[in-house]
Amino acid sequence: MRHLLSPLDFSVSELDKLLDLARDIERHPEKYAKKCEGKKIATLFYEPSTRTRLSFEAAMLNLGGSVLGFSSADSSSAAKGESVSDTIRMISCYADICAMRHPKEGAPLVASEKSRIPVINAGDGGHQHPTQTLTDLMTIRSLKGRLNNLTIGLCGDLKFGRTVHSLINALVRYTGIRFVLISPKELRIPDYIKETVLEEKGIRFRETDSLEDAMGELDLLYMTRVQRERFFNEEEYIRLKDSYILDKQKMKLAKEDMLVLHPLPRVNEIATEVDDDPRAVYFKQVQYGVYVRMALILTLLEIA
After folding, report:
1. Which one from 3, 102, 129, 225 is the annotated catalytic residue?
2. List 27, 80, 185, 252, catalytic entry
3. Could you identify which of 36, 110, 158, 175 might form a hypothetical disulfide with 63, taking C-beta atoms 3.0 to 4.6 angstroms apart as the criterion?
């Protein structure tokens, strides 16, 4: 039995195989419509979510399976003090696979140690978000045709952004990757990622606080929101939340084939006027997320 707790849980060859399966699902959905008949996924979401929770549910329904779960800690026995370990033991009696989002880093790991079913980390605090990373990789590979030889701008909240941390960990395994890290100094990438992932592996990167300065050199721009829920200080959040806003003027500085990705939800960091630019692919990204989660469910259940 396998779990997905980090994007590094799959080797590069396994990732390629998973993305190939997701691509086949996109092209031939009818082939997979009954693959999970009689199977159930439990979505255990201790934090609010729209895209991730609903895309897991859509993925399982598209495969012919069914769904159970909860959408907030308040609507589960966690509100009564039940531990993650006890919850997963109980859920293992009801479902065949589960996706867990939790505000505490490492909670899905704890669950996996007690679980009798595959556990998928659907986001744990500011730590990892591996299925968003799978979605990002599929988006990039589908629209760029490759996952190597890319200059990638990561913009916004790089300190607390679990999507950014997971994506860096995944992409450094490909050749010719270079990062431009765009953030205010208060939201820079954590030192442990800089030192043990980027510097230790010899990955080229530079840090800047200017989005305009970086635009012209990027093949991809990965925008993120400044996350109110990760701040202890409301004043600090208000001061930093509008640090970077991507608009039409800034898009004029970019290459004609640069892609703009965003894990969503957005607040105001991408102006709605950018949505009509063909380089803005964040809503396509959402669709790819369903295909890749379908592929992941099949892989972990050993049905594919």
Report:
1. 129
2. 80
3. 36
Known active-site residue 51: yes
129 in catalytic set: yes
Give the chain's mean pLDDT.
Answer: 91
pLDDT at residue 78 above 90?
no
Q: Which of 35, 39, 40, 52 is catalytic?
A: 52
Torsion (CA) 136, 140, 146, 152 in degrees, nearest 10: -90
Encoded tokens for 177: 């990757």
Q: Which of 39, 101, 141, 250 is catalytic?
A: 101
Sheet holding 220-223, edge to edge: 204-208, 177-182, 150-155, 220-223, 259-261
Active site residue 52: yes
Query: Residues 30-73: pLDDT tens digits?
Result: 999 999 999 999 999 998 888 899 999 999 999 999 999 988 66
Q: Are 153 and 182 in contact (CB under 8 A)?
A: yes
